[in-house]
Each structure stands twice: as C-alpha cells, then as structure tokens.
Design a protein that fits this description.
- It is built from 18 helices and 15 strands.
- Strands 4, 5, 6, 7, 8, 10, 13 and 15 form an 8-stranded antiparallel beta sheet that branches. Strands 9-14-11-12 form a 4-stranded antiparallel beta sheet, with no helix packed on it. A 3-stranded antiparallel beta sheet has the order 2-1-3, covered by helices on one side.
- It is 48% helix and 13% strand.
Length: 553
C-alpha cells in the first residue's frame, strides 16, 4: 500500500506535554509550539521518510530470520519495525531536538498493526503463544486509535484481518476456544464483506473454523484423546507446580461422590458429568476445565503486565503513599481485631446512603455504556461484567482514563481513594508488609450470575506462581437489597473448602467486607437483581519484584 501524501501531522511538545499541530502544507513554515522551528513541513517529511525506510529494512530482516527458522529474531525485528513507525524509536531529527516527537499518522498506525500481526505469527511459531496474543492485542489497540483519528474513514481492513487470524490461532493453541470463535466470526464477516482480491485467504479461514468446531465438539462429548491433548498443551503453558497441583486436586476429588459435588460447586465439572461411572473420565473433564481457568488467568496477567489492560499484573505502590484520614474510619479497632482473629470482618455503614446511591448510579452508567465486560473464558464466573478502574494517581497526559473517570464518576473515584487507604491501616492491624495495585475492580452481577467457590489466591495451596493477593476488600453499593435478591457472599471458616458450616453475607449498600485472600473459601450465590461491588486486593509485598513508593521525589 502506497503511503498517502500527508496533509496533517501532530507533534507533542516535551516541555508542555501538549499536542500541537505541525506544519505540513507547501510553503508553510510555522512550527509546533515550543519546538523551536523544528516541526516545519520539510522536517515532518524527513522524519516520516526515515521511519518508513528504517521500518522496511527491519521488516526485511524479519523475513530473512523467518526463512532461516529463527522465529525469535523474526518476532523482535517485526516489533522493532512497528515501533519505528509509531515513533517509539526516535529519528535523528527527534534525537537532535528532544523537545518534541512527531505522532504516527493513520497510515503508519495501520502498517504497524500489520507488522505486529507478523510478529505474533513468528512468536507463535517459536512457541511464545502468550507473547503472540499480547502483540495482537497491542495491534488492536493501535487500530482503535487509528479509527478514532480518521473517524472511521478510509481505513484498510487487511491489518485487522491479519491480527484476527493470528490471534485466533494462538487462542486455540491455549484452549480458549470461546474467544477464538469470536475472533474467527469477526474475521469471517470482514472477509466475506469485501470483493477485494487482496482480502484474507478464505480457504485458510474455513479450515481454521472447521478445526475449531471439530475440537469443541470432541471436548463437549468427552473424547478422551482430545481431552488429554488439551490438558497436555495447557499444562505446558503453566508453571509445572501449578499444573500439577490442579491435576492432582481434581483427580483426587473425582474419586468420590462428595468430591464430584465439590468440583461442580467450584465450576470444574459440568452437572451432567457428575455421575459418570469412570472416575478417570470425570478427572479428565475436570482437569481440562481447571487448567483452562488457570490459563485464562495467566493470559489476563500477561496482558496486564504489558500495559494493555488493567488487572492482575498492575504495578503496585506502597500503602503509606495512599494513606488518608477517611480510610482510618472505615476499619475501627474492633473490626481490625475481628479480622486478625477470624480472618474476616464485616463493617456496615462505612459510607453514607447518599454516597452509595451516587456510586451505584455511576456504576450503572458505566454498565449501560458497555464499559463493564464479561469474560466467557472464565469457567467460574462467566456472567460477571467487570472492569478495573485506575486509582487516578497519574496526571491526564499519562492516564487519560483516570482523568475521564474523575470527571464522569466523581463519587466512584472518591470512594476508590478511600478504599485504597485501607491497606495502610491493615498493615498495622495484621503486622504485614502489603502493596496496593494501581486499580480497583468494579463489577456487576446481572440476574442469574454467580461465582463458584474459590480462593482469591492459591499461593498457600502450593501454586507459588499465583497472584500474591493477601487481603480482599469488598464494598457493596446496592440500596434496598432484600434477601429475595440472592447474590449473597457465602464464606467458610479459614482453610475450610466448603465442608463445614458457612456464613451468608448480603451485599447491602455501605457494607465493607475484608478477608484473607489465601485462607477464606467463598462463593457468590445466584443473583436475581443487578448486584454491584468494588473490590481491592492488597498484595504481599515480598512476593512482588518491585513496589513503587508513590510519594514522588
């Protein structure tokens, strides 16, 4: 695709951080604000020419590496080529005057996305499946920016098609067939919409769709060979101890009626399979679902660590950097003693009814705007709609979403700030060294949604690679909730996996629930009304590679 003649460019002044127009018209010699005469039309052209030439050379290097069978080098070269087009590797002009950088235009963004699809294909072939999916997700986000800049006009679909195909293949490789199917369905719509001869290879698409349907049908029917193949592949994509723990656990539970009921309760066995005669057949089905659950968590963590989504891999800050006076009133001394003694504490009325009503209204608005999303690959909790909200430490130019939420959801962000101060209180209460992720989860359980019995961290169960959650902090905001609405938080005594008596806690507005993430098994019963909550997890600081102080210099 030939590069279109640039008619508009944007630069970012390093001194102010503001986006400013760069001159591109013939004879136009005005410059970007604060760039000291460096962003005139000839300079813009020189930068773009350098970027595209450098990117082409790197893409050729990637092709050579792929022909030589060096998929790791091919992946890295394609990523480098994409980053050059996006301006992440500065040109000589930008290095000589660091007060500005030229933003990529729509054409370069689309080509960068296509290069990331090529990098994902090479990474997948080289065995880095999670890296391949992460690169595809990065490409999708770049195309979203391109669509916003162009307002949807004149976008080329080939980059998106390449990303969808590469992503689908990688998702199938790790057994996440629901998401792979969604990607293939979108690819089919794009491929069959256009008569463009350059459009995606429909034969390859049809073949992949057939393969996916066949494998899903085999798994649904309990085909022993297909299940063992999936268990083997997914086990290879997890830490050996983690995969071994889950396979061993479900295998043991599969031997008894009581154990099978527990597997059903935890979402690792379909109800229809509970009474199968052969316990080995039950164990295969349960191991497949358990490993799929863990593989999906690993993928979410990888995407979060790459900065593509908020969640399991967010950076953490020291609790003292978030301490505030409002937080100290949320956990009175009696509640702290109860938490230390029983590993769970419940405090009612921590926020006013008016604040909870505003919080509920704002979360409803986020759901109506489809900001909250479900995850069909989560076998324990597929119907929950959730999203991680930033705790709004960063300024607008660094974290535009946080700034947007501060403006549109002031009650939510005010409550979030108060919750984030709690880990500082809990450090003294429990004698722990904690760390606070830079996001809080907002969630809605629509009618019929539930969450199977689980722990928030399995680190003490032998899964050392699990997210090091130490304390779970829940706040409910459901005015006029009644016992007939269901959706209770059901908890058991510490380390009791559902065998002894339980306690039901209704999700009433202004109710704070705090418990030890590694010790308290819990579930959410089926909800019959929309049920909203905020959740913050405090991490074990010593298990993290780094904790940002957060107080600044």
């Amino acid at each position: 695709m030939a590069a279109p003649e640039a008619t508009k460019a944007t630069a970012v002044c390093a001194g102010t951080g503001k986006k400013v127009a760069a001159a591109t018209g013939k004879g136009d010699t005005d410059c970007a604000e604060g760039a000291s005469g460096c962003v005139d039309a000839p300079t813009v052209k020189k930068i773009k020419t350098w970027r595209r030439s450098r990117s082409d050379r790197l893409a050729l290097e990637a092709n050579r590496a792929q022909e030589e069978g060096d998929m790791g080098r091919a992946m890295r070269a394609n990523v480098d080529a994409a980053e050059v087009l996006l301006g992440l590797s500065p040109s000589p002009c930008e290095r000589s005057d660091t007060r500005f950088r030229l933003e990529a235009d729509v054409w370069d963004m689309q080509n960068a996305a296509r290069l990331l699809a090529d990098a994902a294909t090479a990474g997948h072939a080289g065995g880095d499946v999670f890296g391949a999916i992460t690169l595809c997700e990065r490409g999708f986000q770049i195309l979203e920016r391109a669509a916003a800049l162009s307002k949807g006009d004149g976008l080329d679909l080939h980059s998106r098609e390449a990303l969808l195909f590469a992503s689908s293949r990688a998702l199938m490789e790790i057994g996440l067939y629901d998401l792979a199917s969604e990607r293939l369905d979108e690819l089919a719509r794009l491929a069959y919409q256009t008569l463009d001869p350059r459009s995606f290879d429909r034969v390859a698409l049809s073949g992949l769709q057939r393969k996916l349907r066949t494998q899903r049908q085999k798994l649904e029917n309990g085909d022993a060979e297909a299940l063992m193949e999936e268990i083997s592949v997914m086990g290879q994509n997890l830490d050996d101890k983690e995969a071994g723990y889950w396979i061993s656990c479900v295998g043991e539970l599969s031997r008894t009626k009581e154990g099978r009921r527990e597997l059903v309760a935890k979402g690792f066995l379909a109800k229809k399979d509970e009474n199968l005669f052969n316990h080995v057949s039950v164990a295969r089905r349960a191991a497949h679902l358990a490993l799929r659950y863990r593989v999906n968590l690993r993928l979410q963590k990888a995407l979060s660590e790459a900065g593509l989504v908020r969640g399991l891999g967010d950076p953490c800050v020291a609790p003292r950097s978030l301490a505030n006076d409002a937080s100290s009133h949320l956990m009175p001394e009696a509640a702290c003693r109860e938490l230390a003694r029983n590993r769970l504490a419940v405090v009612d009325g921590v926020f006013s009814a008016a604040t909870m009503a505003r919080l509920r209204g704002e979360l409803c608005d986020l759901r109506r705007a489809r900001f909250l999303r479900s995850d069909s690959s989560d076998v324990c909790n597929p119907a929950q709609e959730a999203r991680y909200l930033p705790i709004a430490l960063a300024p607008e130019d660094i974290d535009p979403l946080g700034a947007k939420l501060r403006a549109s959801c002031p009650a939510t962000m005010e409550v979030v700030q108060s919750l984030c101060g709690l880990p500082f209180v809990l450090e003294e209460c429990l004698g722990l060294e904690l760390a606070v992720p830079t996001s809080v989860m907002a969630a809605c359980y629509p009618p019929t949604a539930s969450y199977k019995m689980h722990l928030d961290s399995y680190a003490l169960q032998g899964v050392e690679s699990d997210v090091p959650r130490k304390v779970t902090i829940l706040l409910y905001c459901n005015p006029e909730w009644s016992s007939g609405d269901g959706g209770v938080l059901r908890v058991w005594a510490p380390f009791d996996p559902g065998k002894g008596p339980h306690r039901d806690i209704e999700p009433r507005a202004g109710r704070l629930v705090v418990f030890m993430s590694e010790e308290v098994w819990h579930e959410v019963t089926e909800s019959r009304s929309e049920r909203y909550a905020l959740t913050l997890w405090a991490m074990t600081a010593r298990e993290l590679s780094s904790v940002i102080d957060g107080r600044g210099p």
